[in-house]
């Protein structure tokens, strides 16, 4: 049962989303992501800041190169006066609909499990991401099983669902959407095959960061996460003013 306070809570969440994407290090402020050659040292601050506004922020990145497996250093530049932020109008949403608050279960697959995900800027190569469990739910009498990978959001353990549906590219962002769920705390005491109830609220589906900045490299929905029915809930697309586009 959906709480009578759910629509009000949803409005509060929408307001928080706007604050997040327009923050000094929100997705709209990202103007550059740069990676050094695999194995090369990190760029000095003076190099990273060259040509950037004085109030820009530099953050550091690390990853494993997808082709060589070597350690790779990088950085991002966040500009609080970025063109995207100046032109931002709104995120377009579907109206809150309690029918899209769906009961399901989180099925534990083990800490060691990884699932291959393609990313938008990796030319079809796959990155293996930790996915300790599956999200399982029933819609119109059919059971669906989707891979959600383990991540953290604000240092809180989360499940990140990257999913697609027939609204993509028509009503919603073309590359799919994200949904973050609290990671079941009981998972630490579970064995493979155990499950725990979880609520999947598609009203909290969001446009991924690559819908706000071309300098993000977002994961794309794997085949098992491409739903055959239209999910008309959550965020649709990002609107900009004055003809601006990414």
From TrEMBL:
Pfam families: DUF1684. It comes from the Bacteria. This is DUF1684 domain-containing protein. It comes from Microbacterium deminutum.
């Amino acid at each position: 049962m959906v709480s009578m306070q759910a629509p009000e809570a949803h409005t509060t969440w929408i307001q928080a989303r706007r604050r997040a994407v327009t923050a000094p290090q929100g997705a709209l402020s990202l103007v550059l992501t740069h990676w050094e050659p695999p194995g090369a040292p990190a760029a000095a601050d003076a190099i990273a800041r060259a040509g950037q506004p004085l109030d820009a922020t530099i953050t550091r990145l690390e990853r494993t190169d997808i082709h060589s497996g070597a350690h790779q250093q990088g950085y991002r530049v966040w500009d609080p006066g970025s063109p995207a932020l100046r032109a931002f109008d709104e995120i377009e949403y579907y109206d809150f609909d309690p029918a899209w608050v769906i009961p399901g279960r989180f099925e534990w697959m083990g800490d060691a499990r990884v699932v291959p995900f393609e990313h938008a800027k990796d030319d079809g190569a796959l990155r293996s991401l930790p996915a300790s469990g599956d999200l399982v739910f029933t819609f119109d009498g059919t059971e669906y099983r989707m891979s959600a990978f383990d991540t953290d959001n604000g240092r809180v353990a989360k499940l990140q669902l990257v999913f697609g549906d027939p609204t993509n590219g028509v009503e919603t962002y073309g590359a799919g959407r994200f949904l973050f769920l609290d990671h079941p705390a009981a998972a630490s005491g579970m064995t493979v095959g155990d499950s725990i109830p979880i609520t999947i609220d598609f009203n909290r589906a969001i446009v991924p960061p690559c819908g706000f900045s071309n300098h993000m490299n977002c994961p794309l929905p794997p085949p098992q996460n491409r739903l055959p029915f239209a999910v008309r809930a959550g965020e649709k697309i990002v609107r900009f003013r004055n003809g601006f586009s990414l």
